[in-house]
Each structure stands twice: as C-alpha cells, then as structure tokens.
C-alpha cells in the first residue's frame, strides 16, 4: 500500500511512498530495484518542507524516483515501526531529511545524502545508484541533469540575433553547450534565447559557432519577449499536447524538422510516452490544448496524467 500523493503530508512532496520497510524490501526483491529510503520529519520544520518542495516535487524527478526505485518514507519523529527502522540505520530522530539508497538486503549502494536543497546533489546520487544497480540510465533521466542545471541557475543565458529565429533554434540546440532554446524578440529583432552550460565550454566558443551560423550575440540587452510560436516545429506536431521540460522542448523542436525518425520519443519519460500513445490512438490530439510551452510544474497534473494514461 502506497501513499496518495494528492492527500499526503506536504513533507513527502509528490512522490507516492511505501510506508512499510518490509513491504518495500519485498518489492525490491521482486523487481530488483533499489530502495529510495527517505528519513523525514512529519510534521516537520521549514527545512523539511523546503526539501519536499525543492527535491521531491518536480514532475520528472518524481517519475524517476517512482520508476527506477522503490520509494520508502520513514518518519524520524514517531515511535513504532518507523522508530525501529530509524534505529536500524542509526539515523537521528527529529533530524533534517536524509536519503539513503539501499539494495534488497538493506545495504547502502552509494553514500547517503545528508540534508541538501541542491536538486543536482540528489540527482547525482540517483544516477550513480541506477548505474551501479542496472548499469543503464534511461535517456529521460540523463536529460534531467540538463534541466536541473537550468532550474537551479547553474546554466547561463545568452541572446543571439538571427535572420529567422525558428531556424535559429534548431541550429543553436545542436551545439553541445546549449541546453535549451527559445524564439523571441529584443529591440525589434528576432532573437534566440539560449541556456548554455558553462562547464562545457566558454561563451567565446559558443559565439564562434553562432557566427558560423550567421547569428550574432546581443551585447546590448533590451527587454526580451517570448514569441507567440516558440519551438515552432514542435508546436505543429502531436508532441505539443504533452507537458514538457525546457530541454525536451528544444530537442524535440530540432528532431522534428530534421526528420530524426523515432528519436523524439526517446526524449520522453514513460508517462509522457503513454500519454502520446493515448493521444495517437484516440485521435484526441487535434482538439487537445497545447501544453508544451507552459512551465511543466504547472502543466503537469499528476492526477490528470495518471488518469489519461489509463484510458
């Protein structure tokens, strides 16, 4: 029996959890998946609530936890079975959140995550656990690292003037430094807003690539306004009805006009893929509302997504 994400304490975020240690271990045995073991104070302090919001609520992180792990939540401030598990792992009562990644024998796979509000720190633990446990990280989870760099403010932003921002998007996303693109306007000019990863190269390198494409860095910045048709090629496809991350939008927008057959689907999570199948099967996409250009945290309703994938 797992918790109801729509009615559970806010300290648990949006993940649906096992609450029984033995049941979680049995499921780990059955599926050969590692256990994502959260020790959490419920009800908890602001640190506990912030951890749930920042680390356990973003839709694609939630799905990754539920797909690749057996999620188990143990309260660190109650007696009974929870206290027994707390003592088993020598964790402190009334402590800030701690996450352990254990195998079916209750043994740590990677060092535990002490309290942190850095989603990339949690992501790294998750990714390493998956690599050790199953040797292969699904592509949507690989892309999640890039998305978290955008959301965490690690990526940097540059604006490039282009003759046509629609083709500008598909050109810029091909550079390995670029995480996402968006068509827009600045000072009356068509521009592409780029999120890039400074750990993968310098702005000078990116500028050199842009110049080769016929684009120029906007050095004197003005008010930026997103175009009404960002990711133009994506907007004209069936993928537009899906809730998508910034990274997914940009990659799909490139894959579609370049006719990379079948590649678009590889960017999607299992739930997104199931939604796509349903829309195709029932011919519902034509009348469906476009969700792709909205913040995925707003466009992704767990209740609606899960209901739609069961239809």
Automatic annotation (TrEMBL):
Signal peptide: none annotated. One of its GO terms (molecular function) is peptide-methionine (S)-S-oxide reductase activity. Gene3D superfamilies: Glutaredoxin (3.40.30.10), Peptide methionine sulphoxide reductase MsrA (3.30.1060.10). This is Thioredoxin family protein. It comes from Echinicola soli.
């Amino acid at each position: 029996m797992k918790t109801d994400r729509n009615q559970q304490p806010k300290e648990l975020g949006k993940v649906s959890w096992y609450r029984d240690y033995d049941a979680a271990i049995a499921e780990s045995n059955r599926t050969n998946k590692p256990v994502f073991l959260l020790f959490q104070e419920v009800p908890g302090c602001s640190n506990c609530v912030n951890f749930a919001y920042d680390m356990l609520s973003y839709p694609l992180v939630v799905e990754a936890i539920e797909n690749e792990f057996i999620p188990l939540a143990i309260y660190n401030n109650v007696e009974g079975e929870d206290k027994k598990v707390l003592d088993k792992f020598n964790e402190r009562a009334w402590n800030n959140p701690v996450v352990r990644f254990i195998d079916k024998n209750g043994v740590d796979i990677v060092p535990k995550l002490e309290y942190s509000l850095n989603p990339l720190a949690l992501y790294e633990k998750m990714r390493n656990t998956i690599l050790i446990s199953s040797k292969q990280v699904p592509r949507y989870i690989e892309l999640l690292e890039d998305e978290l760099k955008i959301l965490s403010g690690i990526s940097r932003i540059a604006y490039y003037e282009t003759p046509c921002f629609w083709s500008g998007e598909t050109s810029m996303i091909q550079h390995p430094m670029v995480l996402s693109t968006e068509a827009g306007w600045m000072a009356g000019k068509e521009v592409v807003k780029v999120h890039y990863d400074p750990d993968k190269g310098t702005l000078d390198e990116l500028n050199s690539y842009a110049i080769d494409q016929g684009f120029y860095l906007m050095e004197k910045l003005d008010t930026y306004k997103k175009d009404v048709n960002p990711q133009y090629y994506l907007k004209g496809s069936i993928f537009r009805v899906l809730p998508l991350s910034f990274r997914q939008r940009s990659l799909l927008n490139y894959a579609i006009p370049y006719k990379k057959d079948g590649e678009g689907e590889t960017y999607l999570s299992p739930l997104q893929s199931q939604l796509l199948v349903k829309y195709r099967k029932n011919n519902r996409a034509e009348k469906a509302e476009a969700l792709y250009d909205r913040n995925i945290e707003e466009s992704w309703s767990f209740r609606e997504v899960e209901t739609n994938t069961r239809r």
